[in-house]
C-alpha cells in the first residue's frame, strides 16, 4: 500500500516525534519496551533484526549497560528496544538511537537521540568528555567506540565519537570509571582484542569530568620481528618491522650488528634511526636542488587576492589535522653504513632490544640482498650526458625510428 500517485515527491526524512518513556524518568519495576515513534512508516532495512547485531535496525541502537545484543523490533512507525536479559532493578539505562533511519522512499535521517532513565537508581549526574586519537595516524578517531566501565561492578556504558574525535558520554551514575577508546573496525559496538584501544582510569566527583586524550594502538604481546630489509641508496637500507615501534625508545648504532655473508665479517654501522628522524636529518643533502624548483604546483605569484575573498575550507578539515602532543608511530628504521654496499652481496642484520608500543622487547633478524648494479660510463662528462640519450618526439617515440615521408614531386 502506498499513497496515490500525483503531487510533489516525498524527499523529507522521517522525523522523531516522541519517545517512551520520557528521558530522565525514574521507573522502579519497569518491564515494558523503549519506543522511538516517527511521523511516518520507516523501513525495516534489507537485513531484519535477528538478535545477532547484523540487522539494519540493530546497528542503529546502542543500549547500555549490557554486553548482549538488544532485542530491537520494527513496528511500522516505531522502533522498540529492550535488553535481551530483561531490565534489571536499580540501574541507570542509556539508549542511543544513531542517525540512519530511513523511510520507504529511502529518505535518510541524519539526526539521532539519547534516552536515559532509571529502574529505581538515583538520577545520573556525571558526564565524561574527551577525545580519542588513532595513534597510527596521529589524527582524531571518527566514530570510535567509547566504553566506560563503572567500577567496581564493571557496568559498561558506551557511546561514539563525533566527526572531530570528541565525545560527551552522559549523564552517567556517580563513581569511578575505566574509560576505553576503541577503533571499532567491525562496528559491533564491542571492544575486541585485536582492535586498537587505550584506557585511562577516571576518579572525580565533578559533574563534568575532562578525560585525558586516549591514544589508541594495537596491544601486541609478542616482540617485533623484521619483515623486510630493502636498500634505500648506496649506504643506507630501510628495515621494516611487523609491528609499530615505541617512539620513546632510543636506538643507536650499538644496537645493530651487520655481517657480510658468507664469511660473517662485521660491517661498521654509523647510525640506526627511526625513519621520520632519519628523513629530517638526511632528507635533503647539501648541494641538492631546492624542491620548490621542481615543484610545478607551487603558489601562483601572479594571482591577486580579491578583497573579502577567503578560501572555502572543508568542514572538519582543521579538526582532522594530525596532533603533535605525542610523537607519531612508525614501523621502519633506517640503517646507515660507512662503506658502499657490495654488488650482488648478502648482509645479515640483527637489531637487539627493539621494543613495540606495548613495551614488549626482543631481537629482530633479517637478510639484506644487494642486487646487481648497472655499470655507468664514468668518463662521460656531465655535458655529454644529454647527447648520449636518444631523441624522442612529443609522443615518447625515438626520432630515429619515425618513418620518413616521401617528398611529393
Q: Count of DSSP helices?
A: 2
Helix percentage: under 10%
Please give the largest β-sheet.
Answer: 5 strands, mixed
Order of helices and strands: EEEEEEEEEEEEEEEEEEEEEEHEEEH
The span between the termini is 82 Å
Query: Rg, please?
Result: 31 Å
Which structural class is indicated by helix and strand composition?
mainly beta
Distinctive features:
about 5% helix; about 35% strand; single chain; elongated; five-stranded mixed beta sheet; about 400 residues; 25 strands; mainly beta
How does this model look, in words?
The protein has 409 residues and is mainly β. Helices cover 3% and strands 36% of the residues. It has 2 helices and 25 strands. The protein has helices spanning 275-282, 385-388, and strands spanning 16-20, 25-26, 34-38, 61-64, 71-75, 78-82, 92-97, 113-118, 126-134, 139-140, 145-150, 155-160, 166-172, 177-182, 197-202, 208-210, 214-216, 226-233, 236-245, 256-261, 265-267, 269-274, 330-337, 346-355, 361-369. Strands 9, 10, 13, 16 and 17 form a 5-stranded mixed sheet that branches. A hairpin with a 2-residue loop joins strand 18 (226-233) and strand 19. It is elongated, with a radius of gyration of 31 Å. The N and C termini lie far apart (82 Å). The model is unreliable at 285-317 and 375-390 (pLDDT under 50).
